[in-house]
Design brief:
The chain is 62% helix and 0% strand. It has 353 residues and is mainly alpha-helical. Helix 4 runs antiparallel to helix 11 (254-265), helix 5 (133-164) runs antiparallel to helix 9 (206-238) and helix 9 crosses helix 14.
Amino acid sequence: MVTNGASRINFITVILTGSSTRSWQPIMTAITNTLSYWLNWRFLVCSLFLLAYLALATILICKFEGQRRSRNQDRENQEVAPGVIYEEEAWSTCFKCIHPAWLLAFRMFAFITLLTLLVINVIVDGIGIFIFYTQWTFTLITIYFLFGSAISIYGCKKIWAQARGDSPYHVSSDIEQGAEITPTPGETTVASNESQHFDDRKIAGPWIYTFQIIYQASAGAAVLTDLVFWIILFPFITSRLFQLQMLVICMHSVNVVFLLGDTILNCLRLPFFRIAYFFLWTCIYVLSQWVLHAYSNIPWPYPFLDLTPAYAPLWYLGVGMMHLPAYGIYALVVRLKEVIYSRLFPESYRKFT
């Protein structure tokens, strides 16, 4: 029994450090698969925090998601409700002069690169890496680019089909041409009515809504993962002579780089209420860890998940609160992009609002 427990700890150590000979390893503070570990006030308080996050996410989704607000708006008001997603948003570029095929190429390149890194990570450290939030988020971002590539292929096919006259669906002429359109004086009426175009565009189906949700959950999770690693875990690890591997650096940087690259090109919005999906994503991860550790006595992947210390509820509260600046940072980047692009390139910038 002791040998089996020691082998489990050694296995997790190899996952964390890439080698069983590293000087830093997780510490078993208590046996997790016993009732005494879970039936206490610390677990009760942490559970209340988790329920509060879930309740907040549910309220935000029920209040703002989908077309609920747009149905009550006056038809003369062309402003898009924050919960409404148009189909073209998922595969269009934010500039009229850039063809969506460029976004497709970027998404395919990002998917291949991220998938390669993930496969290498599994080969080097084993399937057990998926105990970590980093790998959960990295996998989610990889799925996002796979999903995005498929949607971009669909969008490009619609554009090319319409160019041949084979498609019954409407695609904006500026998207089809992939070139900046500067209206002449005789065309000003058409240009002024461009915003009315959006009411006639196809509302996104469930697949594109899912794609948008993955994008927004990934944005917050990637920022949170990298902030926690570089600000909290990295100094702790290096203080114990941990040799940082290039693969570890890539897993905690490339994800955000590719997401930012996609954000620079795409038309996707980032309404703040969709932080709800970010909370849901983290709650699902924490619940899975609770179930895993209730069943198996293994070290916690992160010290702030351990329920043994008296200050454990403060960790859960603090990490939960970190979701606000993590998502806020990315939302600020998207907002700055919109402001800068609309001011520097007012004629060619495309905004779905």
